[in-house]
Design goal:
Chain A: Keywords: ATP-binding, Cell membrane, Membrane, Nucleotide-binding, Sugar transport, Translocase, Transport. The complex is a heterodimer of chains A (355) and B (303). Chain A is 24% helix and 33% strand. Chain A is α+β, with helices and mostly antiparallel strands. In chain A, helix 3 crosses helix 4. Chain B folds into two domains: 48 residues, no CATH class; 206 residues, Orthogonal Bundle (MetI-like fold), CATH 1.10.3720. Classes of the chains: A alpha+beta (355), B mainly alpha (303). Chains A and B meet through strand 6 and helix 2 of A and helix 10 and helix 11 of B. Bound molecules: adenosine-5'-triphosphate and magnesium ion. The site of adenosine-5'-triphosphate (ATP) has 13 residues of chain A, from helix 1.
Chain lengths: 355, 303
């Protein structure tokens, strides 16, 4: 087991595409580290560079204490699970699992023991004598995970391993992966563009955008204080409301009259935006105490909650999360009230968190 | 999209009757189809049939007017003549067949050994001006062989490859390599690169990964490609007649052509030799027909 250190990684493909601009990551030993970002932000490329399947243009990668820049994948002692499972179609599950061990030249008895153990961990018993073609997507993915396990590598790399599964199975597998990682204590780097997956799995999350790291933090940190406007707009569904504010009389005031408590240490003379989570707002009766006037544009009933889209302060897209018991009709005049604590505040020009 | 062999084959015979094209016409239409196909088959197959008939007729019957379709005496003498010389020992024709086997086999093997790894490289690796390189490779096939045969004749004379099996093997391989690269690149593209990635992470080198993971998955494609290359080399005539002259080197096509000419033509022998010549290709194509279907539908790997 080992931590992974990525320093100033830069990858430019021969066709000129800069897939990774500048990435620094410091992944701790035994950590479940998630890389999250929109499509094309360089997640896969970063992961493949760590695996040694892609040679970075510049930058260093260390696994444990070893500088692995020039080591071929085989010598890095890591296992990777792909979105496409890459199970060998002509081999039964048993042999698919044994394949990496045979490559190492382990004795037969040892191979058998390890395959049985991995099969037990991933509950593959009845599937051991089937070929991949006769396995369902979820089963194939379990085999692929088991295949990564048998080698007892220093780290696991996972590239969107659950994307091809349906929603229910994905949730199950997520739990399973998290449980497994906890049990084995092996470092895991998990790539996804699904924030729910990232939030529920990761000890820490790195948010990538255009080949750069926007933020690294625990799921809570990332959710509570997104480090940039990009993160603020990316995390959460619906994401934060980004409301232009001005500082006046020691308060943050939005255009529609919404008043927020300013965080300490706000810079002056800058255009500011406050990030307000939909659950930090409340739709009330019109003219309720501390509320400002607004109008319901639409409402999405999601069963356990309602997302109101309200028209306020010249914007028609302020989103508010409410319990399903509170009902307002579309177009109804309502009040809008801030109930949360101090919001995150961003500089419009630098797009970064200022306080 | 990748189509598996079973799918490609099994969906074919099941006619969907509900399709608009079949709604009117119905039986009359299919009768017309059958008639047309029968006529077409007759026209296409008649020369083959006539060749086979001629090969088992006695020479008298070959020249008979009106032509005898059915009531002739069957003889195997011509086939004997193909293989056994008039005195004793092997005939020149049988030597030519053997040459053909050697030349076609070796050139196909050479083209496959060179072309498959090249196709793999073109499919897997980023390289400068890849498209231009591939186009250049293909462009070597644009010219009809006749155009290059004279310069090649002169070059071969200089380097001493004229009238040698090696010379023919090399030139056929040179013609088959571009074809193999292009065709095999399609097959390699269909095999997900993740197989090799996974194998490399498992401790194999890139070449081992190719050898142990990708190559077995490419076998249907290789079979299909090799059959086409083999047929090209087996049938090739222009280079064979220009670049070879002695009986010990000549392949079957010029040897059979050589039977025609002179004062009398032994048509029975020509026909028998042609049948013997056509047979291996037919048998071979029949044996690998499943792979040929896979080859046409491109890729038997399900994603
Ligand atoms: N082999 C390649 N050659 C050239 N450009 C590439 C190559 N692979 C990826 N890219 C480009 O590099 C950028 C980053 O790709 P990458 O696959 O790392 O994104 P990603 O974050 O994994 O996206 P996704 O969530 O869609 O998988 C993209 O713009 C992509 O088009
Ligand atoms: Mg990706």
């Amino acid at each position: 087991m080992a931590g992974i250190e990525v320093t100033a990684l830069h990858k430019r493909y021969p066709d000129g595409t800069v897939a990774v601009d500048h990435v620094d990551l410091s992944i701790r030993d035994g950590e479940l580290f998630v890389m999250l970002g929109p499509s094309g932000c360089g997640k896969t490329t970063t992961l493949r560079a760590v695996a040694g399947l892609e040679r970075q243009t510049t930058g260093d990668i260390r696994i444990g204490d070893t500088l692995v820049n020039d080591l071929p994948p085989a010598e890095r002692d890591i296992a990777m699970v792909f979105q496409f499972y890459a199970l060998y179609p002509h081999l039964r599950t048993r042999d698919n699992l044994a394949f990496p061990l045979r490559a190492e030249g382990l004795p037969k008895a040892e191979v058998r023991a390890r395959v049985d153990e991995a099969a037990r961990l991933m509950r593959l018993g009845p599937l051991l004598d089937r070929r991949p073609r006769r396995l369902s997507g979820g089963e194939q993915q379990r085999v692929a995970l088991a295949r990564a396990l048998v080698r007892r590598p220093r780290a696991f790399l996972m590239d969107e391993p659950l994307t091809n599964l349906d929603a229910e199975l994905r949730a199950d597998m997520r739990t399973e992966i998290k449980h497994l990682q906890g049990e084995l204590g092996t470092t895991m780097v998990y790539v996804t563009h699904d924030q729910v997956e990232a939030m529920s799995l990761g000890h820490r999350i790195a948010i990538l955008n255009k080949g750069r790291v926007e933020q690294i933090g625990t799921p809570l940190e990332v959710y509570d204080r997104p480090a940039s406007l990009f993160c603020a707009a990316f995390i959460g569904s619906p994401p934060m409301n980004l409301i232009e504010v001005e500082v006046a009389d020691g308060k943050l005031r939005g255009q529609g009259g919404l008043v927020l408590t300013p965080p300490p240490g706000l810079p002056r003379d800058r255009r500011l935006v406050a990030g307000v989570r939909p659950e930090a707002l409340e739709v009330t009766e019109p003219r309720a105490e501390r509320s400002v006037p607004a109008r319901v544009v639409s409402a999405e009933w999601l069963g356990d909650e309602i997302i109101y889209v309200v028209d306020h302060g010249g914007r028609r897209d302020v989103r508010v999360r409410m319990p399903p018991t509170v009902r307002f009709a579309a177009d109804a005049p309502v009040g809008l009230r801030h109930t949360g604590g101090t919001p995150a505040v961003y500089d419009v020009n630098t797009e970064e968190l200022v306080a | 999209m990748a189509v598996s062999v079973d799918e490609a084959v099994s969906t074919r015979p099941a006619r969907d009757r509900g399709s608009p094209a079949r709604r009117f016409g119905g039986r009359g239409r299919s009768a017309l189809e059958v008639t047309l196909l029968t006529v077409l088959a007759a026209v296409m197959l008649f020369p083959v049939l006539w060749m086979i008939e001629t090969s088992i007729k006695e020479n008298r019957d070959v020249y008979a007017i009106p032509a005898k379709f059915f009531d002739f005496k069957v003889t195997m003498d011509h086939y004997k003549d193909v293989f056994v010389a008039s005195g004793s020992g092997r005939s020149t024709l049988s030597a030519a067949f053997l040459n053909s086997v050697v030349v076609a086999g070796a050139s196909t093997a050479l083209a496959t050994v060179l072309g498959v790894p090249a196709a793999w490289a073109y499919s897997r690796f980023a390289m400068k001006a890849k498209k231009d390189q591939l186009f250049f490779i293909l462009s070597t096939r644009f010219m009809p062989p006749v155009v290059v045969v004279i310069p090649i004749f002169l070059m071969y004379r200089q380097v001493g490859l004229i009238d040698s099996k090696l010379g023919l093997i090399l030139i056929y391989a040179a013609f088959n390599v571009p074809f193999t690269i292009w065709m095999m690149k399609g097959f390699v593209d269909e095999v997900p690169a993740e197989y090799e990635d996974a194998a490399m992470l498992d401790g194999y080198t890139r070449l081992q990964a190719f050898w142990r993971y990708t190559l077995p998955l490419l076998l249907p494609g290789i079979a299909a490609t090799a059959v086409f290359a083999l047929i090209f080399s087996w049938n090739e005539f222009v280079f064979a007649i220009f670049l070879t002259s002695s009986d010990s080197v000549r392949t079957a096509p010029p040897a059979i052509a050589g039977l025609i000419g002179g004062t009398t033509v032994d048509w029975g022998l020509v026909a028998a030799a042609s049948v013997v010549f056509a047979l291996p290709v037919l048998v071979f194509a029949y044996l690998v027909r499943k792979h040929l279907v896979a080859g046409v539908t491109l890729g038997a790997v399900r994603r």
